[in-house]
Amino acid sequence: MPSPTTLSQSSLRVPLPTAEGRLQRLLTGLAHKHGVPAAQLVVTDGGRTDTATAGDVTAEAKFPVGSITKAFTAALAMLLVADGDLDPDDPLGEHLDGLGPLVGRPTVGQVLSHTGGLPAALGAAADGAGSARRYLRACREAGLVQPPGQCFSYSNVGYVLTGYLVEAVTGMSWWEAVDALLLEELGVGAAFVVEPGGRRRTEGHVSGHAVHAATGRARSVAQTLSPAEAAAGALALSAGDLAAFGSMFCGGDGPLPPDLAAAMGRPVPGAEPFGLADTWGLGLAGYRGADADWTGHDGTADGTSCHLRIDAAHGRVVALTTNGSTGSALWTDLVAALRLEGLPVGDYELPADLDRAARPAADLTGHYTNGDLEYEVDVRPDGDAVLVVDGEVYPELALLRDGAFSVREPATGRRIIGGRFLTDPATGAISAMQAGGRVARRRRRAS
After folding, report:
1. If DSSP codes are grouped into helix, strand and coil, which group holds residue 117?
2. How many CA atoms lie within 13 A of 1 on its CB side?
3. Chain centroid offset of residue 14 CA
4. How close are the terminal C-alpha atoms of the chain, in Å?
5. Neighbours of 57 (CB within 10 A)
6. What's the farthest any 2 CA atoms get from each other in the chain?
7. Hey, is 327 helix, strand or coil?
């Protein structure tokens, strides 16, 4: 099996059987390399679609796609904009009672672009929220992590609220609305990892797997998403389903008008998703490519990693589903291989000098919080430093340029971008951290 770096430089634009055969060999080899039990790949380029599968799955199998669900929830909201029932400038509190004056301030557009200032998640409060009323009360009590419109901070909470917004406007549950208004129109069969009332689905979608990086052993894991967070991550889809959704943004069939489809990917000023993407629009991330700007979304559920990229200008879509925790590394290799094959897939480019970094100063030590999510930086007397995220230790924290820092990924040992430190413009002191796109404020030391 040739490695991605030794594949021919010829384009994927060759007769379909040959292209599918090459794509099949590529995906099978990468799945084996990264210990991923099963995967699907769909590449649409100029009106022709090539598909591949790896492992014991069909092209129709559904994979939990995690946060890619948010792109579908955003499209639902934009459908309501098209109908005149919503406006991106509407404050949340105009449609949702119970948020209070503070949490009700962010607009629909700010929430879709993760600039609403809402916390990343509610944790135990979300697990115990058996109704919209309880969840809205928990949001009101949690408050905002920063003023609306100030900067990008990735928020599951915002998309849960968008789901409740859809329910308030349509009179349907989020599950019913996403199926009837969007999935059916795209010709996609609905599948979810959790349903109303808290029923968890084990049939209807493939199982995720925790893959041990050293041994390659894969252990099946259950999906743990709470029913309250369904609008942020409950969909299970095939790569073909993702490609059908992506084609809607390339002028294909779909219920969303072209101007609103374009708005979903158009960069929002101030939305700087450091560590996740280059830009963010009203529901889709933006990625710079060699010959075009791409949009899309990534999603991680329990033991799955899925990816969608869309080049609307050239009618190109790439969709990958995997049911292994190492699927993100497979995606990185896949992007490099497709680029060698002549398909310049847009993706977020990490700094090239991750190993040329400085030891952090001791004054970075401290706790940084976003809602109930906590980060701890510990700079030790010998100069070594670690980042602890909800108890998981990321060793060898090292500073890069412009406040960015890298760490070692515990599962693989790879050096990855951990985030960046943010300074208070008034004092110049470190006041926050942006990690995984989420802004966590530095907790003041007790006097």
Report:
1. coil
2. 15
3. 32
4. 62
5. 18
6. 71
7. helix
The per-residue pLDDT for range 244-284, each reduced to its tens digit, is: 999 999 987 889 999 999 999 999 999 999 989 999 999 99
Q: How far is CA 225 from CA 66, 184, 246, 433, in A?
A: 9, 24, 25, 26
Residue 96: HSE in the Cβ half-sphere, 13 Å Cα cutoff: 32
45 closest CA partner among 260, 344, 323? 344
Helix (H) or strand (E) holding 165: helix 156-170
Instruction: Tell me the per-residue pLDDT of 376-418, one tens digit each, with 9 for 90 and over.
Output: 999 988 878 999 998 899 998 988 888 889 888 887 777 888 8
β-strands 385-389, 430-435 pairing = unpaired
- Euclidean distance between CA atoms 426 and 429, whole angstroms: 8
174 or 122, higher pLDDT: 174
CB 231, CB 76: distance < 8 Å: no
Q: What span, in angstroms and rounded, lies between the C-alpha atoms of 42 and 128? A: 38
Compute and round to an integer the Cα radius of gyration of the chain: 21
Please, is 251 exposed, middle or buried when counting C-beta atoms within 10 Å of its C-beta (0-12, 13-18, 19+)? exposed
What type of residue is 88? P
pLDDT over threshold 60, residue 53: yes
Determine if residue 194 is left, alpha or beta; phi over 0 gives left, psi from -120 to 50 gives alpha, anything else beta.
Answer: beta
Question: Which pair of structure tokens corresponds to residue 209?
Answer: 């797997």
Residue bearing tokens 């995984």: 436
pTM of the model: 0.92
| pLDDT range class, residue 47, cuts 50, 70, 90 | confident
Rounded to the nearest 5 degrees, what angle is found at the Cα of 347, between the Cα atoms of 244 and 405? 140
Q: Which residues pair with 379 in a beta bridge?
A: 385
